[in-house]
Every structure is written in C-alpha cells, then in structure tokens.
Amino acid sequence: MEVPRDKLDVRDNPKVISPPILTLPLYGCASAVNVTGYLPHATLDIEVSGAIVVNGFPGGSPAPFGATIHLPNPLVAGQKVRARQHHAGVTSKWTSLAIVRDHTADYPAGPPRPELFPTPLYKCGARTGVNNLLVGSNVWITADGATVGAVNGANNPQGVNVSPHYQQSQHVRALASLCNDPSPPSLEQIVQPPPLPLPTPGFDPIYDGGTQLVVNTIVDGATFTLSRGGVSQGTFACWGGKCIIGLNPPFTAGEVFTATQELCPGDGPSGSGTGTVLPCSALPAPQVAPVQDGDTQVDLTDFVWGSEIKVFVNLVKTGDGSGPVVALTAPVPHDARIDVWQILGSCQGQTMQELYSHCVAPPVDGDPSALDLFPVGTHEYDGGGTDIDGFHYNIRGSIFYPADDDGVDKPFNTRLASIGRVPIIVLVHGAHSSTTPSYQGYDYFQYQLARMGFVAVSVDERETDQSPDWSGWTSNIVRRAELAIASIGFVQQLDANGPLFQGRIDFARLGLMGHSRGGDCVIAVAERIALPGVTVKAVLSLAPVNSGANSGKPHGYAFMTFLPAADGDVRDNNGAQFYDQAQPDPTKTQLYIYYANHNYFNRQWLNDDTGGGLPIMSRPDHERILSTYGCAFFRHTVRGDATGDYLIGTALPPGVQNQNIHLSYDVVGVRVVDNYEGHPITIDSEVQPTAQSGGLVARDFPFAQVPGAFNTSFFGNTTGNVAVSKETGGDFRSQLSGRANLTHAEIRVRAAEVFDGQNIPPLPTSFRVGAEDGAGTISWVSIDDVGGLPRPFDRRAFDNKTKTMLSTFRFPGRCFAAERKLRIADIRAIHLNLSGDANRPIAFDDLEIVKHAKGSK
Amino acid sequence: MSFDTAGQVPPRRDVNLWHLPDVLAVEVHHVRFKKPRRYTILGKDNVVSEAVEITIETSEPFLIRALNPALFVGDIALIPTEGEGDRRYRFLAFQPDDLKPGAAISIAWNSPGAPRKETGFAYQPPEQRDEER
User: Fold this and answer.
1) Nearest CA-CA distance, residue B102 and chain A, Å
2) Which of A68, A279, A526, A717 gets the highest tally of CB atoms within 10 A of its CB?
3) CB A152: neighbour CB atoms within 10 A?
4) A462: nearest CA in chain B?
C-alpha cells in the first residue's frame, strides 16, 4: 500500500546506511568481485583476509548490475572477503565474511557454459550479453573461430563489445575460463540479417532530479544515439532490450530526450523515439516483495534504476541502499511495519510503500531449472521388439544427455564422464492419440535435466495408445510399465557397450516422471523393476490416474505429485490418493495447481482438455512449473543438490505463478501429534486426550470418495478431522505426550476450507494455532500470518468436482515466541482454534512438530 | 501486385472428452482362455482362465484419453480388457453369478459421478459355454 510520506513519522537517521551486497559465491583465481545494493555514488572498500586491497573505489551508479571491482591480485581459495561503503561521511558496517571457494568443488567438470543473450544475433551487432558466468572469470566471444571480443574479470552478466562487428551467417560462441579451467562453449548462434526496419527506441519513465535513463526496444547488438534537447550525448552500443545511460547535469521536468538506433550503416537509422522528463511528483513508491519475520534484507520487485532506497522498520531507519536488494542493519522483528522510500537524486518520492512482515512469507529464490553446465546431445534409440500380454512393442525413445557439444549423437561430455557415472531420469507419457509423438512433449524438461548433468530418457509408448491395448485400462498401464522397464533395460545395454553411453550412467540413482496414465505407470515401474543395479530414488507422478496398476502406496523413494485443479480429464485428481498413502522416503510433496489443466505440461498435447470450460494458465506457465519443481525435485532427491527448500515451501522458484500453487509436504522423522488415523477423535496419535470447547465439534471422516465422507468434495485417500464451530473461537486441543521445544522447530498442519458442495462464501475463513506451555500460557499464530487458507478452486461452472484439498502450513516456533511469557522449550499442547466466522467447517490432517534442518529458512 | 484469395481456416473444435459413442451390439460369452489371462489388482498380478466376457460394438471409437470407458451391468462395473479393432471393446466378469439377468447395460467414463449412457441392451447370461480364445 502506498502511503503519503508526510503522514509518516519516520526517523531518517543519516548515520544509518546499509552494508552493500557482495555477490556470492567467490571463487579462487577471480580477478574481480561484484558489489551491489550500495548508495548511488558511494565509495567502496574491499578487504581480503584482513587487508583492505581496494580502498574508496568509486561505485558510481549501482544500476543495473552494481560495480565490478578489479582486484590487485586474484582471489585464493580459503581467503575471507568482505565489503563496505562510504557515503556522505558515513561508513557502513562490513558485509559478512565470505570465504573464497575452489570452483572445482562446485563445478568439478569445469565452469558452467556461458549463455549468449539476447538472441538471435544480428549482422553488424556491436555488443553481446553473456550470462551464466562465474564472477571474476575471463570471457571471450568467437565468430567463425576468431576472437572478436573479450573481458577479463567479468561480471555476471557481462556485456562484451564486438569488433569487427558481426557478419551475416557467422557462427558465434562464447567461452569462459577460471584458473585456466575452460568452460564448455555456449550454444552456437548463427548471425541473422538485421530485422529491418529497426523499431523506434523508447524510454522508460524519466524523472526530474535523476541522472540515469533507460532506453528500451533496442535491437540486439545495435548502437543508439541519444540526444538531450537536440544536443547529441553520444552513441552507445547495447546488447539489446534495455540500456541504461548516466548523464549530467540532473534532469529537469519537461526536458526532452530522443534516440535512434542503427545496426548496419548502409541500412540507416530507425525512427526517433522521444522521452520527456516527468515531474518529481510522479516518482512512485517502489514495489516490495513480501517480508518474513527475521529477514535481513528487503527485495524490491519494481523501482527506478539508480535510485536510493531507504527502509524503515517500525518507523526506524534500518536500511539505506539501492535496489534490487537492500541489506538491513537488523533483522525484521515479528509483525513489523515496513515503509520503503525511493529517492532519485534531488527528487524525493512523495509516497512510501508500506507493508507488514509475516511469520511465513517464503522468499523467491534462485531458479532450480537454470543450472546450465553442459552442451546437450540427443539420441533416438531403437532397442528392437518385445512382447507383453500378446502385444508387440518397439523399444524406442529419446535420450538427452550432457555432451561435448550440442547436437545429435555428439560424444558424451568427456570431463563429466571422467568424474563418474551420472544419474538418469526416465519420463513416461500418458494416453493420447497414437499418431501424436507424445514422448517428444517433454523435450524442454529433458533439455534442462541434461544440461545440468542428468541423462534424461523419454520412452515412446505410442503403441500402447492403440485402441485394443488402451482399452485394457489397468492391464494397459501395467504393460506401459513393463515397456518402460524394457527401455531402461535397453539403456543398460547402451551403458554396457554402446558407443555413446558406455560406462556413463548410474542406474542406482534413477528418477521417474510419468504423466497421466504414465503417472500411474511410473509407480508401477518402481514396484516391478527388477533389473540388476537399478535403484529408484524418486518418482514424480504428474496428473496421474489410479487404475490399480500399483499398490497405491508409493514407498521406498521420494515422491512428488502434481494435481492440476482445472484438470478436464483426470478430474478426480487421483494423485491426491497417492500422496495421502505415500511414505515420505525421505520426502513427499503434492502441488495442487490452480488454473492448470491436464495437457499443457506436454508440448505435443495441443488441446485444452477443459474445452475452454475453465480459466487456464498459459502453456509456458504450465511448463515452467514442471521445469522448476521437477528440476528441484530430481536434483535434491536423486543427486543431493541443495534444492530441497522448494519441496517444503521454504523457498519459491522465480518466474512461476506461485500464487496458484498450494503445497502439501511431509518428511521422514517428524513427530506426529495427530494424523487422525486408527483412533477415536478423543485421543491423538500420541495417545493423549484431545478436548473440544467453545462450541466446536470435530469428527474424523474419510477424506476420500467413499460412503461416510463429510461430503463429496474430498478426493484423497486418508482420514482427517473436520471441525466446525457454532461460535467464533471454537477450540480443539491436542495434548502432547511429552514436552516439545519449538526453539528450533515448527508446528505443521494440513488444512483446507471445506467446500460445502454448493456455495463458496465470498470471504475466506481462518483458524489459528496455539502453542500451550506447561504453565498454561498459550501463544497464537493466525493462518493469515503464514500464508492464509486458500479458497476452493471453483469448478462449479464446469462440473461438480470443486474440491476440499488440503495444503500444509508451517508455524515456526519463532512466531509463537512473540508472546514473551510463553516457555517455548516447554510446549505441552497444541490448539486448533476456529477464529473465522461460525459454522464454517475446516478440514485438518497431519498435525506435526518438525525440527528445523540446520540452515533452513 | 497479386492478391491471395485467403483460404478459410476451419474453426478449431474443442474435443468433448465426455462424449460416449452409441452401443450398436452386445455379445455375452463364457470364455475359456487357452493361455491364462493376466489381470492386476493393486499392483498384484493374478491370472484367470475363464470369465464371462461382454463385448460391445460401438458407433465410433472411444476417444483415447487418460480415463477408460466403463461398462456396467446394473450397478456392477466390469473389468475392462483388451479390445479388438477400434470399435469392439471387451469387459470381463469373474463372478458372473453377481450379474442379474435382465439388468440394464450402460457405459460411462470411469470417474465417480460421470454420467452413464444406457445402451438399450440388457444382460442375459451366455447360453453357450466355453468359447475358447
């Protein structure tokens, strides 16, 4: 919410400035470091192992990617580095010490491959962006094998000027090295003819008092000429898209800037774009990402590049820096009021962005699908025939794998192979027209998995889609499983003696992903596979049916399922049955995804299975969910990468419609207070008494499509507690068998607003969780402070499958500790208190106490 | 300058996943399998050597999708099994005594609450025993 600055009694203490942000990680041999988040025109110090090696570096503008500061000597692994800023006579605290790492510990097969961007590249292009670099490495660009640009001690991303300019049809690649350790080459780009006529450049809003402006709509590699009041300010090369330029003196309202762009001189310039400086009164407040109690930084989602950002916590200045991330001088306390103010040169924003911190507001973290280490090779296999139940099948499919270069049947990546075998992920499509190449529909996911070091196989099961076979239902899905196993067996042969894969694949680290009938099938694969050396570590079951082809109880591996809430085919979301019955070995995760349909995760399945009957996210939004959550899942559970936070909701992936995703999750080894299974509602799973008070009535019900369910809106396969209260504040108390210490632990519970089968009230309902100590003191945390209870996904206009689908909520102990009298190490009972409107039932399940993993968020 | 005459593109038709074909014929046989037939329940494979088999012939193929067609005799759902061609679908009953003579035969998609379509045929126990397949 934007609030007028003059209405706020904030104390702008000029002595408080944020420490800057040192871009991490740091690696040995880096000849530069990158610093962001500092105040415009601050000076910066860099200290290495106790000695200030750079003193008073002029930071200039922090936009857009901070300051790349070259060091007198390259870094050495084990050194400790920190940074600070000076501004207007004030010196910030140092950043936390960062220990320089050996890059081969994180990248044993060499630095990641650079990425050229934006693409395509154009004839006469004068500058190119390169991404996916280790800060401080050296980067260079080749055209037809000749170096045409280079930067030593690069930032990430890094712009590289190109000379001579690109010529049409040149083959361009970027390469990088650190410690003389070369990266693989980037994906090759072939220079294209200029996109004539070139578009007219535009300007992002320019404000009175600013000294930087952003010219947009620049074609990749073009140069643009900028004029101010008709006076040329120079010609600049830009990698494309947006380009930021600093000018002096500061802008004044009504001033006019113009720009033209040009690629090849003979083609002439574009039309002239115009930008007029807006008055200071138009400067908006910045946009701020949700803040979680305990945060030590504030993330901005929209701000004016190059502006100063001041942060006030409970009206006290706690940060002063620049976007997109401002470090704070103290952690955000519980339920804090946060005001964020934007200042641009002499122009002070007239409004502030105000928000309140929440007990749980997980940060948007790095992209788990973006790890780009290797070129990707592809191979179509044909393993001959096999007969199952009298049907004859060809053992076919596609393999994407880390390679020495991109392309068909390229050699397996030599350096990766020298380190050891790599894990394998096998994908199985579902039923669709047998003329549709369904197995090719996950090529985007295969590509992502391969470039990060997995072998990704997609099995061609089209022959099981022919009508006589398909109509066998359970038997058909069993045959699909056996055909997938036959493919895995054939890939084992390729690993035993094939030219590309000999000795390359680790079948003891195998993950499975199946979609639709394939989602049922892969659970059957895990239960049936008996090939020597195969261990299934993870199964992702995407919009599965549940035919009885497997036990219905996933076990012995990590499990994940996607439930598209707008599934027009598997409209019962049968994956919920698998989730409910799955053992967390060691984790299980369910994504209930609003506005997702059945088909759009597969690029070959073109029709919207709801037939337009429900609002649907775009196809790229579907794919992005599979990419991010699928990669996080397989990386963590099959390879041990640090991407587990996405599986338990403590981090969110970027570029995803996270507001549409409702997670359930469970992990092995938690303390189950009550799962409402196998005992009356009067006791809990610790065989301790429960109590109902304040007009609340709670009973156990099947959460399933069976007689005796609370109503027909439950679609899983478990039992749970449906509580309803005649009055606000009805309470359900579960006593613990022994004290719980919530100092480094949290309470988790699954919950959902119950859909009554007919109506969805206009306002949500709520509940709160109470932690009661041995002295009877109760501290309460509202569901609204940990994310809020989602509204049911409304399918009433389409069918009668609007569901009561539970999600997991985390109530960290630190949130209860706000009640100072509470003895947080002596919790004796947990309360579920219906704090919303009376007579609004809420479904609960899996009340647990979970210790925090070391370093968890 | 030449002008294209602009061929009209037919409007995209959304697929109705819930469409059911008409059932044109129903055959009921008691079959004995030369090679025992595999069927799976909750992941466990079983074999059956004989069963009552109901074969339906439809006006058009069922749409290939995630769910399967279901066949009901009265309210008893039969086990779907492999079909023949693209308009003959087979369903098995392992306990044929549960099927009531005269009970209406209907089809649906196998999702709870999915609408059933009456076929106009009623179940009659097979007269001829032991068709071998």
Assistant:
1) 26
2) A526
3) 13
4) B64
